[in-house]
Amino acid sequence: MGRKMWGLIPVFDCSQLLLLCPSQCKPSVLSIPTTDARVASPQRTMADQAFVTLATNDSYAKGAMVLGQSLRNHNTTRKLVVLIGPHVAEPARDALHSIFDEVILVNVMDSGDAANLALMKRPDLGVTITKLHCWTLVQYSKCVFMDADTLVLSNIDELFEREELSAAPDPGWPDCFNSGVFVFRPSNETHEKLLAFCAEKGSFDGGDQGILNSYFNTWATADISKHLPFIYNLSSIAIYSYLPAFKQYGHDAKVVHFLGKVKPWNYSYDTQRGEVRGHSASPEPCQMHPDYLLQWWQLYAASVLPLLQKAYGDAPFSTGFVEQRVPEKPQEDVREQPKPSPPAARTVSSQERKQRWEAGHIDYLGDDSFSNIEQKLNSFLK
Ligand SMILES: *[C@@H]1O[C@H](CO)[C@@H](O)[C@H](O)[C@H]1NC(C)=O
Ligand SMILES: *[C@@H]1O[C@H](CO)[C@@H](O)[C@H](O)[C@H]1NC(C)=O
Ligand SMILES: *[C@@H]1O[C@H](CO)[C@@H](O)[C@H](O)[C@H]1NC(C)=O
Ligand SMILES: *[C@@H]1O[C@H](CO)[C@@H](O)[C@H](O)[C@H]1NC(C)=O
Ligand SMILES: *[C@@H]1O[C@H](CO)[C@@H](O)[C@H](O)[C@H]1NC(C)=O
Ligand SMILES: [Mn+2]
C-alpha cells in the first residue's frame, strides 16, 4: 500500500468569513493617487503585501518556481518574494528573478548578530533560522509564507484578511499548526524574539514547525476569533492526507502541500506520454496524489523549464525528464524493499504517534483515522 504523503491546507472563502467578521470583508476603500496611472491597476494596490517562500538549494528552488508560477497563473495581486540561501546556483537565481518580484539572499552566517548568535548556539537549526528571516521583510505590512513544496490550485489572496499567526492544523497533529503556510506580520521585534527563542529553547521537532508552535503557543486555544476561519467549519477543513477524506473534502482544497521526504522534483516526467515516473526512493510511480503531482510537472514543463533552459544556456542541469532511450522496465529491487511496519498498536503514546506520523508510518485506520482527527479538532473547538 502506498502511503499518501500529501496534505491539503484549508482556505475559507469570503462569504464564510463575512458571517464572522463583516468589517474585515467589506471592500476596503482605497484612496488612489491620480498622478501615477500604474498605481490604479489592481496589481499595484496591494504592493505592501507579499507571498514569501524559501529555497536553500537548487531542488527547492525548482519547487519555489513552480509555486510562484502557480500564484501568478491564478492572478495574485500580491508581490512574490523568495528568500534564497547561498547554495542556490546563479542560473537558478536568474530563473527565480523571472517569476518573483524580489529574490533575497539570506546568509545567516554573516547576517545580523542575533541570527548569527542563534545559529552558533543551534547549528542544527540553520534552515529554520533562515526561514525566520521572513519576519525582517518590514517593507511589507503583511505576508503569507508558503513552503516551496506547496502548489496553489486557485487564487488565495483572501488569506491576507487573516491575522498573524494564522495557519492550518497539522494533518498529523491537529493541536499543532502546520508551518507550511502561515500568515504573519513582518516585525524586527518579533524576529529578534524568535531568534532568542531559537537559541534558548531549540525546537521540539528539530525544525521550524516546532519553533513556531512553541513561540505562537496559544494558537490552538487563545483568541479563537482570530483563528476561527481555519477551524469553525469542520466540513471545510481539507487537511486530510489520505484518500477517503480527500473524496469528501478534496474539491475545497486551494493549496496542496507535498508532505514527506519524497518531493515532486524527486520524480521524473515523461514529456512524450505526459506521465510522472517513479523515483529510486519510491519504486511505486505515484505515492502522492497523482493528479496534483502531474499538475506540478505540467506547470514545471510548461513554464519553469523554459526559464531554466534560458538561464543555464549550454551548461548542463537536471531537467527531471525521463531520457527517451532509457528502456522502461519494472524495477527489480521493488520486492526487496522492507515491508511497511505492521499496524500500530492501539496504545502508543502521543509523542510516539507523532514521530511515527512524521516518519511516514500513518495509521490510517487506527489512531490517525479521520474520525479520531475529527474528534481531536472538535475537542479544541469547544
Ligand atoms: C534542500 O533544502 C531543504 C530545506 O530548504 C532541505 O530540507 C533539503 O535537505 C536540502 N537538500 C539538499 C540536497 O541539500
Ligand atoms: C487571469 O487573468 C487573465 C487576464 O485577465 C485571464 O485571462 C485569466 O482567465 C485569469 N486567470 C484566472 C485563473 O482567473
Ligand atoms: C528593521 O531592521 C532593519 C535592519 O536591521 C532596519 O534597516 C530597519 O530600519 C528596521 N525597521 C524597523 C521598523 O525597525
Ligand atoms: C459548513 O460548510 C458546509 C459546506 O462546506 C455548509 O453546508 C454548512 O452550512 C457550513 N456550516 C456553517 C455553520 O457555516
Ligand atoms: C530528492 O532530490 C534531491 C536532489 O534532486 C536529493 O538531494 C534528495 O536526496 C532526494 N530525496 C529523496 C528522498 O530521494
Ligand atoms: Mn513542506
From TrEMBL:
Region forming the signal peptide: 1-31
Q: Which GO terms describe its molecular function?
A: glycogenin glucosyltransferase activity; metal ion binding
Q: Name one GO biological process term.
A: glycogen biosynthetic process
User: What reaction does this catalyse?
Assistant: [1,4-alpha-D-glucosyl](n)-L-tyrosyl-[glycogenin] + UDP-alpha-D-glucose = [1,4-alpha-D-glucosyl](n+1)-L-tyrosyl-[glycogenin] + UDP + H(+); L-tyrosyl-[glycogenin] + UDP-alpha-D-glucose = alpha-D-glucosyl-L-tyrosyl-[glycogenin] + UDP + H(+)
Subcellular location field: Cytoplasm; Nucleus
Keywords, comma-separated and alphabetical: Cytoplasm, Glycogen biosynthesis, Glycoprotein, Manganese, Metal-binding, Nucleus, Phosphoprotein, Signal, Transferase
Q: Give me the stretches of Basic and acidic residues compositional bias.
A: 326-338
Which residue ranges are recorded for the region named Disordered?
326-354
Look up the EC number in the record and give it. 2.4.1.186
Task: Give the family this protein belongs to, as stated in its UniProt record.
Answer: Belongs to the glycosyltransferase 8 family. Glycogenin subfamily.
From the Swiss-Prot or TrEMBL record, give the protein name: glycogenin glucosyltransferase
The organism encoding this protein is Fundulus heteroclitus (Killifish)
